[in-house]
Amino acid sequence: MSDWMQRIIESKRAARLEFAAQSYGEKLRIVERLRDAAQMFRASRSVKPLRTARGAK
Amino acid sequence: MKATLQVINQMVADKVIAEYAIGGAIGAIAYLEPFLTQDVDVFMSFSTTAAGLIVSPAPIDDYLTPRGYQPEREYIRIEGWLVQFLPVERPLYAEALTQAVTRDVDGVPVRVFSAEHLMAIALDTGRLKDHMRIVQFIEAEVFEREKLDAILGRHGLVDKWRRFEQRFLQP
């Protein structure tokens, strides 16, 4: 593996460890935001586009 | 989440459940970087009465429903979170419960399985996502190898660990 690639991997690993080292409360708030975003995304995907009145009688 | 944990702590104070510890993804996040999950796994033992050990989930429903927390499939939604109450039955889980550690969530004490027990349970469960979680624990270096080895030995998981190592940790 090149030094360049090794540095990228090490940098990403350090960032993940820094993220993991946050307080449990802060990490759970992040999980809540992830969950809410996922729910909003699912909700937006499950809504069928409104039909226009063109075909309505 | 803080409000959810306060309700669970109150269930212990009110003797609905004897003791509990958070496992699963929310438990793992105590040690790892946060990731998406939808539910909270609460491993718990029931209180004992003069009549003996309570093994029915009815006391949980009887306690939570009047407080406005409604069942949804196998969960109960508590302060916005889907919570699953899982009675500990197997020795590995019982040990994880008794050896759980206390973490702080914004001033609320919460019992969480140790990193080593979470790893052993993930190994025992054995789905791909469980194996991936073990890899995360190893990468994060948030566990004690001796403690993990002792748990694996006590619960007959040494061979499973060797297979996991061959599959996921060999270059």
What can you see in these coordinates?
The complex is a heterodimer of chains A (57) and B (171). Chain A has 57 residues and is mostly helical. Chain A has one domain (3-45). Chain A has 2 helices and no strands. The termini of chain A are far apart. The model of chain A has no long low-confidence stretch (mean pLDDT 81). With 171 residues, chain B is an alpha+beta fold. Chain B folds into 2 domains: 2-113, Beta Polymerase, domain 2, CATH 3.30.460; 116-169, no CATH class. Chain B is built from 8 helices and 9 strands. Chain B has helices at residues 2-13, 24-28, 58-64, 91-98, 115-125, 128-140, 145-154, 158-169; strands at residues 17-23, 39-46, 48-49, 52-53, 71-72, 75-78, 81-87, 101-105, 108-112. A 5-stranded mixed sheet of chain B has the order 1-2-7-6-5, with helices on both faces. Chain B has a two-stranded antiparallel sheet with strand order 3-4. In chain B, strand 3 (48-49) and strand 4 form a beta hairpin. In chain B, helix 4 (91-98) runs antiparallel to helix 5 and helix 5 packs across helix 7. The longest helix of chain B has 13 residues, at 128-140. Chain B is elongated and about 55 Å long. The mean pLDDT of chain B is 91. Classes of the chains: A mainly alpha (57), B alpha+beta (171).
